[in-house]
Amino acid sequence: MENLKAIIESLLLVAAAPLSVDRIQVLLPQADSRGIRAALQRLASEYSERNGGFVIREVAGGYQFRTQPQYREVVKKMLQPSPVRLSRAALETLAIIAYKQPIIRHDIEQIRGVDSGGILRMLLDRKLVRVLGRREIPGRPIIYATTKQFLELFDLKDLRDLPSPKEIEELGRPPRQADGESAS
Amino acid sequence: MTDDGYKVKLENVFEGPMDLLIHLIRKNEVDITDIPIALITRQYLAYLEWLKRMNIDFAGEFLLMAATLAHIKSRTLLPSHSSDADEDPRLEIARPLLEYLQIKQAAEELAQRQLLGEDTFVRPPSAPDDWGDAGEETIHVGLFELIDAFQRILENIAPDHRVDLTTERISIKDRITEIVDVLEAKGSITFTELFASESDKSDVIVTFLAILEMVKLCLIRVAQHLPTGIIRLFYL
Description:
The structure holds two protein chains of two kinds.
Chain A: H1 4-14, H2 21-27, H3 33-50, E1 54-59, E2 62-67, H4 72-79, H5 88-100, E3 103-104, H6 105-112, H7 117-125, E4 129-134, E5 142-146, H8 148-153
Antiparallel strand pairs in A: 1-2, 3-5, 4-5
Chain B: H1 17-27, H2 37-53, H3 60-77, H4 91-111, H5 143-166, H6 172-186, E1 188-190, H7 191-196, H8 201-216, E2 220-224, E3 231-235
Antiparallel strand pairs in B: 1-3, 2-3
Helix pairs in contact in B: 2-3, 6-8
């Protein structure tokens, strides 16, 4: 299919959510996934070379047209979106869930040292966190994990794309006396 | 704490005991793995005192941390004899602090990404739902969405049903009048006769309450000749 790239481009334009290779494969049974992937990569680099107002980003397991961050102000002026701002506490809770999932509330609170019920409820409401099930231990606590929306919000390809926490500044150097016990 | 007086609610006061500890460690420029427990504990308690005086509520977690600090201090003072106690007791607090610092760092990095709806935007979906039937599609929902949906369904189907439950089809007063009418005509009636026509549970209850009320008002006398016999109501 020599027009594969153009077909995919048209799909990307109308897709409501990040478009995955698998989804394109279903729509175009005659194309192979390697070809689709190659076409997507080529499209993405074309857009980034063009240096225009939007690019193709790989997020949440798919590809999506997204505006360039440097034009955020004027775009915001037009769309007037409701702010996505998350409080520091919410961000910390989300980070714990993202890095330690699947995780139960007790373990989240263990790390933060404070009650996290209200924040968890808010994160569930905003669909950044979901209930994965219950752990089969006394009390059958709920297991939490992040959602696709979480990946979309933070511009992440998948969970492996999470930034690995940098070595924490001078304060948080792994204890030297406790060998083999690095805080990675 | 009284309800009177000026109350302050600060948004960015320390989120929890961990934040307060990190603040104190930074302020004193000490190494997290070599915390001067006595100094930090003193400052920590002074801070709690200050929070109390400022009328700022703090949770029990703050007190728990204070207890942990005091416990660690006591362990550092005791000479260790057992073989497994040669670990620095301060690690009990250093480890979770390090982990918490990492999470804070991770949260910081997440916040600095190109956030959708903040730094980068997508084309708003052109609502294909409006074009007509998009057909059934599989959707993935969480427990809370399911509960929401169930609540919505209840709200939708409830009106008819709820009327049934809430309206008293017949009031106790009306029922008393009815029974009096019957008794005036017949003089007496059996207990089961009164309930014969009733199918609805609420009607049964209303009738029963009506009988009790009538006994109380000395309108009727209830009699039963044998323990298993027929209960009869007599009009007085």
